[in-house]
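Aim 2 progress update. The chain analyzed this quarter is reproduced below.
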Amino acid sequence: MDFDRVSGTGPPRAARLTTAAHRALEFALHPDAGSRRVDLQQAIRALCEEARGQGVRAEELIVLFKKTWAERPELQGLSRDETGRLFDDMVSLCVEEFYRAPD
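Predicted structure tokens:
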């Protein structure tokens, strides 16, 4: 699936969204960071705000997230169970944040 074509965003906007997805994954894949959960939640919130601002639907965001996930070299060192569990957790966080009522 070509994310740019589906969402109608141009390269700069798609690049911002991809960068936000990578930032969220960085916090998820490196749990040794001190305030990881707070940083992860903030990164997921920024990702979802960027997506909503661009008119990206939740399912399109999940497709982008999955594509970004597959590009991460850190996943090679994890078991299939670990990656599956972590991926499911991240998708759940994204969906919850995407549909969270504004503060």
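Helices lie at 3-7, 11-29, 36-53, 58-70, 80-98. The CA atoms of residues 44 and 94 lie 6 Å apart. These observations will guide the mutagenesis experiments scheduled for the next reporting period.
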